[in-house]
Design goal:
single chain, alpha+beta, 2 domains, 4-stranded antiparallel beta sheet, elongated
C-alpha cells in the first residue's frame, strides 16, 4: 500500500436533535494528502456519524481514485473520437463509473465502424478485425471483456470497481493508440529525406592494351638429299 503524508487537515462537526428529541452528531474530516511515491496531491474527506456505521469505503476522494490523465496522443485521433475521450475522462474525474464505461463501449463501437464497417454484430466485427490484421487473435478476448463491461453498465445497471474500470480504459487506449501510430508513421515517412541514388558506374575510356603477338613457329628442318648408291 502506498504511504501518504498529511499536508493539512480540517474537521467540521455537526449535531442535530430531531422532533422526537433524538440527538445525533457527525463529522467531516478533510485531509490533504501527498503520495510518498509519485508526489501527487489528493483531498480525502472522512465521515463519521453517531448513528450510522461508516468505514473507508464511504470516504470521498478528490480527484477520485478512478481519475486518470488523458493520454497525450488523444488529440491526434479523429475529432469525434477525441471529443468522446474528453467526455469519458470527465466522467472519471467525477467518479461517474457507469457513464465512463458506457462511453468506453461507445468508443470501441466508433473504432469498429471506422475500421471494418458498422454491419453485423459486435462478435462478427471483432472477427473481421482479426481477419483484416487490425487485432491479434489472442487479444480478441481482451477486447470482448471491455465490451461486456460496457454492456453490463448500459443494460444491467452494473457499476464497475475502480480496478475494473481502470482495466477497461487500458484496453481501450491500447486499441486506439496503434491508429495514431499508423497515421504519425506515415507523416514521419513523408518528412524523412530520401537517400540519394547511387551514381552509375563510369564506362571505361582507356582501350585495353593489345595482346602480344604469338611467337613464330620454328621453321621445319630441310630434308638432306641422299646420294644414290653405286652398283
Amino acid at each position: 500500500m502506498t504511504k501518504h503524508k498529511e499536508l493539512k487537515a480540517a474537521m467540521t462537526c455537526h449535531d442535530h436533535i430531531d422532533e422526537w428529541g433524538h440527538y445525533s452528531e457527525w463529522t467531516e474530516n478533510h485531509r490533504m494528502l501527498e503520495c510518498c511515491g509519485c508526489s501527487s496531491i489528493q483531498l480525502r474527506v472522512e465521515y463519521w456519524h453517531s448513528d450510522i456505521p461508516l468505514d473507508d469505503s464511504d470516504f470521498d476522494y478528490y480527484p477520485p481514485r478512478v481519475s486518470r490523465r488523458k493520454p497525450d496522443w488523444y488529440r491526434m485521433l479523429p475529432d469525434d473520437w477525441a471529443a468522446l475521450i474528453h467526455e469519458i475522462y470527465g466522467a472519471l474525474a467525477s467518479d461517474s463509473r457507469r457513464l465512463a464505461v458506457m462511453g468506453a463501449r461507445t468508443l470501441i463501437d466508433l473504432y469498429l465502424a471506422e475500421t471494418v464497417g458498422d454491419h453485423g454484430t459486435f462478435a462478427q466485427r471483432l472477427d473481421r478485425l482479426v481477419l483484416d490484421g487490425y487485432l491479434a487473435k489472442n487479444t480478441k478476448d481482451t477486447l470482448e471483456a471491455a465490451l461486456d463491461a460496457g454492456n453490463a453498465a448500459a443494460h444491467r445497471g452494473h457499476t464497475p470497481s475502480a480496478k475494473d474500470l481502470s482495466l477497461v480504459m487500458d484496453i481501450v487506449e491500447n486499441l486506439l493508440h496503434p491508429h495514431v501510430l499508423k497515421v504519425e508513421a506515415a507523416k514521419l515517412k513523408a518528412r524523412t529525406p530520401k537517400r540519394a541514388p547511387k551514381p552509375a558506374a563510369a564506362a571505361a575510356t582507356v582501350a585495353a592494351p593489345a595482346a602480344p603477338a604469338a611467337p613464330a613457329a620454328p621453321a621445319a628442318p630441310k630434308a638432306r638429299r641422299q646420294k644414290p648408291k653405286k652398283l
